[in-house]
């Protein structure tokens, strides 16, 4: 037992260090559970509403996102919760567990903390054991509290048996992906790769589940997420998938401990790749560097936006049954009896999608700010390039991304709407209607450039404007608000092309605002000191 | 001809004065050692020279052009190595060196780059996230030396290098000087400054407290003298050019104002000198003199 010596002391030390971070994760995951169950109990009290949801959820896009509908014949609140929340919550918990394990094993090894512990009279496996115990404590708390929350806030259909099972699958998925991260922490030689491989493993589980749920069901069983989904709490309450996963967890932990004991400190079992000796032609330019720095988030955002487009587009077919009689939704879309309700809803969704597009687009300009803050923009500026050129490269990239991302998202949305065969809406109209948001996007870019030039430290307040625009989009019709207050949101001025409203002047004004803001921003950047 | 001219430079951050009336010159083919304790204003001065910060008062001219208004023109002739080299974690060292060189607008000469990497024992195929401080500095140094510049601005460039690589660095500084380039070397390592620099400027609390040719400055400072004598030389204590006189049996230790060496020899002649040891003035002594004097004054 030499190898485990002092595990307990290390655990207490880890607990001290981790308590704040872990509380945040616990609160985050648990609020997901609380909000989910309360929202369902409040909004879907009526069995007819729930049955309408079954219809809306029974299409390939929704099945890909959540899994096949369970408890179709008796779609209770419990069934609804299990169906729509399970995969999402499991993924969230898995991510938190992966980060926890890598942070407490490979990252500490990388930063040299384990070296200090090993020099002290602690066992070889003590540090890892304390990390595993920490993982177990985290997941047990999560499981117990989730079950309690469901029992307290659920209705009659949320029984104790199902609530406990839900808690148990939450806890066991965390343990499982934590053990996966532990294994990858042994295999790869740095924390970044360990995290990446573990997340890819999680992503693959998700994809396998999607493939399985959209046809060949057996594949879904291989995926731990698909497997746990089949416990179907509150519907059939199968316990045995939990046992299979638990068995897998034990195997992974044993292998990890074995590898940990055998390998040298600081090394990994997978060879680290040899990097490039010289830079590509593209990377030697400012736009090329910008693209390189932003490629990962841009790819992820492109995929997410397309997914968002498909998801929203595919429910439009069942829209009329879904929102019929729902007063709140009717109020949000300012129901005008002359207009097709689906058209009006699509217009709102287009606004929402456009606001989502803004996020990656303005992050590009914000990236230059963070480069400056990290002291790296100096390399670009002390050289042959002017400040205008460097900022211009990032702004241009932001501009092109706005066009491409909006096009990609709106056209997939429009295509998805078309597959649902909604009457009276055409692909071209939706596309044009979505593209009409572009000048508003450019106003947002201009606003961020303005902040960058004059108030760089306030650059993130652009998120406040974006959040405000979102609120205006959704709620401006619910409350009486003065026009000027709504008008602060650039998106408020975008004409509703879908309903035949065409106003080139408003688009032109948004465009001019974008250019003007940017121009003033460039002047500010040329005048101001660079920040440390 | 002056390559770099700093005149009456002041910089306020809000109400706080970071620099007060800083002036110095750097001539063509010269190496200027820019020394001072942490937080004295070295980096702020350099950032103003680079056109990153705007001077509150005074002027900075490089090659006869203004540091702020003509920044792009000036930068084409400069190679810069910052003190804290922050690099992009996902790029390799080799990629960053090429990137730096192309940002300077100079052609990447593969052979010269490879040669430098060999001399500095640098592996360019690793991702920057895995580099130590010394390796990150090497990235910036290799990019600086791989192509010619008219002015090299180096902000504590060797704090992470080992002694062998420090020597490689010094050789390259001497080489660029031979080619006629000028160097502004901000440094903590006084032996390095002493080895390389023609002129020094010492900055403290935002003010230049001493500047000029290194030889002339050293002249102002004191030589350590150790004597072993048969007869008493106590009368030396009275002389105003002798300081901190200590006697230990037949040995005496004291500090001598270097420009009074002749007077000292006249005084001790014929006193039965057994041993005469003198340690020449070091930059460190000069530095410490300002250091201790000003800290006394400030408290």
UniProtKB/TrEMBL annotation, chain A:
Write down the superkingdom of origin: Bacteria
Q: What name is this protein filed under?
A: ABC-2 type transport system permease protein
List the keywords (alphabetical).
Answer: Membrane, Transmembrane, Transmembrane helix
Which classification does the entry list for the species? Bacteria, Bacillati, Bacillota, Bacilli, Lactobacillales
Q: Spell out where the chain crosses the membrane.
A: 21-44, 80-102, 131-154, 160-184, 196-219, 239-259, 289-312, 345-369, 389-410, 430-452, 459-476, 504-525
- Report which residue ranges the record marks as coiled coil: none
Query: Where is the secretion signal located?
Result: none
UniProt organism field: Marinilactibacillus piezotolerans
UniProtKB/TrEMBL annotation, chain B:
Q: Does the keyword ATP-binding apply?
A: yes
GO MF terms here are: ATP binding; ATP hydrolysis activity
Could you list this entry's UniProt keywords, alphabetically sorted: ATP-binding, Nucleotide-binding, Transport
PROSITE patterns from the xrefs?
A: ABC_TRANSPORTER_1, ABC_TRANSPORTER_2
In terms of InterPro entries, this protein maps to: AAA+_ATPase, ABC_transporter-like_ATP-bd, ABC_transporter-like_CS, ABC_transporter_ATP-binding, DrrA1/2-like_C, P-loop_NTPase
Domain ABC transporter as annotated: residue spans: 4-230
Q: Which family does it belong to?
A: Belongs to the ABC transporter superfamily.
Q: What is this protein called?
A: ABC-2 type transport system ATP-binding protein
Traced from the root, the source organism's taxonomic lineage reads: Bacteria, Bacillati, Bacillota, Bacilli, Lactobacillales
């Amino acid at each position: 037992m030499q190898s485990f010596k002092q595990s307990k002391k290390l655990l207490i030390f880890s607990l001290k260090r981790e308590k704040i971070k872990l509380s945040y994760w616990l609160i985050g995951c648990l609020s997901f559970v609380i909000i989910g169950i309360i929202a369902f109990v409040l909004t879907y009290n009526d069995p007819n509403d729930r049955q309408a949801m079954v219809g809306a959820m029974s299409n390939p896009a929704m099945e890909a996102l959540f899994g096949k509908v369970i408890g179709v014949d008796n779609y209770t609140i419990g069934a609804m919760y299990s169906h729509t929340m399970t995969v999402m919550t499991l993924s969230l918990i898995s991510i938190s567990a992966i980060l926890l394990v890598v942070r407490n094993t490979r990252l500490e090894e990388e930063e040299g903390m384990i070296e200090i512990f090993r020099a002290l009279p602690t066992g070889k496996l003590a540090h890892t054991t304390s990390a595993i115990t920490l993982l177990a404590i985290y997941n047990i708390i999560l499981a117990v509290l989730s079950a309690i929350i469901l029992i307290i806030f659920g209705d009659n259909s949320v029984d104790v048996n199902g609530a406990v099972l839900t808690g148990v699958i939450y806890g066991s998925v965390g343990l499982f992906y934590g053990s996966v991260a532990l294994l990858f922490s042994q295999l790869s030689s740095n924390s970044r790769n360990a995290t990446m491989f573990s997340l890819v493993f999680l992503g693959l589980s998700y994809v396998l589940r999607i493939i399985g749920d959209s046809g060949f069901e057996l594949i879904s069983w291989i995926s731990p997420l698909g497997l746990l989904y089949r416990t179907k709490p509150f519907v059939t309450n199968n316990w045995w998938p939990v046992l299979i996963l638990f068995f897998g967890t034990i195997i992974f932990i044993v292998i990890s401990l074995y590898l940990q004991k055998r390998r040298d400190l600081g090394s990994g079992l997978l060879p680290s790749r040899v990097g490039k000796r010289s830079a590509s032609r593209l990377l030697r330019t400012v736009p090329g560097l910008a693209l390189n720095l932003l490629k990962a988030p841009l790819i992820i955002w492109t995929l997410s936006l397309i997914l968002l487009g498909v998801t929203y587009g595919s429910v439009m077919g069942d829209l009329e049954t879904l929102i019929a009689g729902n007063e709140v939704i009717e109020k949000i879309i300012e129901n005008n009896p002359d207009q097709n309700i689906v058209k009006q809803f699509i217009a709102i969704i287009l606004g929402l999608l456009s606001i989502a597009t803004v996020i990656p687009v303005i992050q590009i300009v914000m990236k230059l700010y963070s480069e400056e803050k990290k002291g790296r923009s100096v390399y670009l500026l002390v050289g042959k390039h002017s400040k205008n050129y460097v900022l211009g490269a990032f702004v241009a990239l932001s501009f092109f991304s706005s066009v491409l991302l909006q096009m990609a998202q709106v056209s997939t949305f429009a295509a998805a709407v078309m597959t649902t065969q909604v009457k009276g809406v055409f692909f071209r109209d939706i596309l044009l209607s979505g593209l009409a948001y572009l000048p508003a996007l450019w106003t947002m870019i201009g606003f961020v450039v303005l902040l960058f030039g004059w108030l760089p430290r306030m650059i993130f307040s652009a998120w406040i404007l974006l959040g405000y625009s979102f609120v205006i989009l959704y709620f401006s019709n619910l409350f009486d608000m003065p026009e000027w207050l709504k008008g602060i949101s650039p998106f408020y001025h975008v004409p509703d092309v879908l309903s035949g409203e065409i106003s080139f002047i408003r688009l032109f004004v948004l465009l001019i605002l974008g250019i003007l803001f940017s121009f003033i921003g460039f002047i500010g950047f040329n005048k101001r000191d660079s920040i440390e | 001809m002056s390559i770099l001219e700093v005149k009456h430079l002041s910089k306020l951050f809000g109400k706080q004065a970071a620099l007060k009336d800083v002036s110095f010159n750097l001539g063509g083919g010269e190496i200027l050692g820019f020394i001072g304790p942490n937080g004295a204003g070295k980096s702020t001065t350099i950032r103003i020279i680079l056109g990153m910060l705007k001077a509150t008062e005074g002027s900075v001219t490089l090659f006869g052009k203004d540091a702020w208004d003509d920044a792009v023109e000036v930068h084409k002739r400069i190679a810069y190595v910052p003190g804290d080299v922050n690099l992009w974690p996902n790029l390799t060292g080799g990629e960053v060196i090429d990137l730096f060189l192309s940002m300077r607008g100079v052609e990447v000469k593969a052979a010269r780059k490879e040669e430098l990497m060999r001399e500095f024992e640098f592996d360019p195929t690793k991702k920057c996230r895995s580099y130590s401080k010394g390796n990150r500095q090497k990235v910036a140094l290799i990019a600086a030396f791989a192509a010619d510049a008219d002015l090299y601005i180096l902000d504590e460039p060797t704090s992470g290098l080992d002694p062998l690589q420090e020597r490689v660095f010094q050789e390259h500084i001497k080489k660029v000087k031979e080619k006629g380039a000028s160097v502004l070397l901000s440094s903590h390592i006084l032996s390095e400054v002493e080895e390389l620099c023609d002129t020094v400027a010492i900055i403290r609390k935002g003010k230049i407290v001493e500047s000029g040719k290194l030889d002339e400055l050293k002249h102002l400072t004191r030589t350590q003298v150790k004597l072993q004598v048969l007869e008493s030389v106590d009368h030396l204590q009275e002389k105003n050019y002798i300081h901190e006189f200590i006697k230990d049996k037949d040995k005496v230790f004291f500090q001598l104002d270097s420009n009074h060496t002749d007077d000292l020899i006249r005084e001790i002649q014929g006193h039965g000198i057994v041993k005469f040891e003198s340690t020449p003035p070091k930059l460190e002594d000069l530095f410490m003199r300002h250091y201790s004097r000003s800290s006394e004054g400030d408290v």
